[in-house]
Amino acid sequence: MPNSDICKIEEYSAITVAGRQLLLAALIACFFMFSFSLQSRAEGAETITIYFYSSETNINNFKALKMEFDRYLSEFGTYQFQPFSERETFEQEIKEKQNCVLVLSSWHYTNIYQEYKLTPVLVGSRNGKTSQKNLLVNNGKIDLATINEGRIASASSEHYSKTLLSQMLHDDTLLSQLKILMVPKDIDALMSLGFGMAKAALTTDYSLSTLNMLNPALYKQMKVLAESDEALLLIVAIPEESNEDVHSLVKILQEMPATPNGKKNMRMLGLDDWHPLNSSDITKLEQ
């Protein structure tokens, strides 16, 4: 082979190797730029918070509730769960916030939705029902005329308990004389009657039916003294002006019952599913 041809081959080989090296360097640079871009976006992403407060439930283990929800939500993005034990603190925290999700009682939503410019998007359900009745019951030892002679056990906040009693009794003088015994759960309010810790209990129709399975003898003693109108269970609401990340988080909540961990977390809220609200539900909430 002539020397000139050999030189040309060597020059071509050198160019090819150099080209490959340049291409490889370019690909590596692109990879690091892309990785840096993803990292920057992740670091700069806004954390969307679910704020939870229920006037109807006296939850006593907020640490476990937050830990389980945070673990579940971390699988989907930069989301977190923040429960509150006091209504005033909850309302202070959500004031003027736009990109967040709220989980609260239907009674609480009705009281604040106009001031906080909220829109309801989901309602919880339990055993296929999205509503419940609140009941004032005792074990046959007193009636309404003598209800002020002992304490009334309730798992709801004192303010909400007094609101329910006001709606049921329609007697402000009697209401002012009532004493509330706070207990962790609805079923505890009923059991306290059996132990003589209270003379009456504020509970729900669901909890009363549960008592029939747990303690049939005590259930047979129960007498319903008064009841409320049907009320929707927990509501998921969002500010009227929310971004797409908020709507994505609502969808994640709606799909929780489809996974074992999601179902477990739903049970911690006393629910087993979420449903979109219909026009009738919204009318009840915002009347």
Helices and strands: which structural class? alpha/beta
Q: What is the N-to-C order of secondary-structure elements (H for helix, E for strand)?
A: HEHEHEHEEEEHHEHEHHEEEHHEH
Share of β-strand residues:
15-25%
What's the level 1 CATH class of the largest domain?
Alpha Beta
The coarse silhouette is globular
Summarize the amount of helix as a percent range.
40-55%
Q: What is the CATH T-level topology of the largest domain?
A: D-Maltodextrin-Binding Protein, domain 2
Query: Averaged pLDDT, please?
Result: 86
Distance linking N and C termini:
97 Å
Computed CA radius of gyration, to the nearest angstrom: 29 Å
How many strands, which pairing sense, and closed or not: the largest β-sheet?
Answer: 6 strands, mixed
Strand order of the largest sheet: 2-1-3-12-4-13
The number of helical elements comes to: 12
CATH architecture of the largest domain: 3-Layer(aba) Sandwich
Number of domains: 3
Number of DSSP E strands = 13
**Would you identify the regions where 5 or more consecutive residues have pLDDT less than 50?**
6-10, 29-43
CATH level-four homologous superfamily name of the largest domain: Periplasmic binding protein-like II
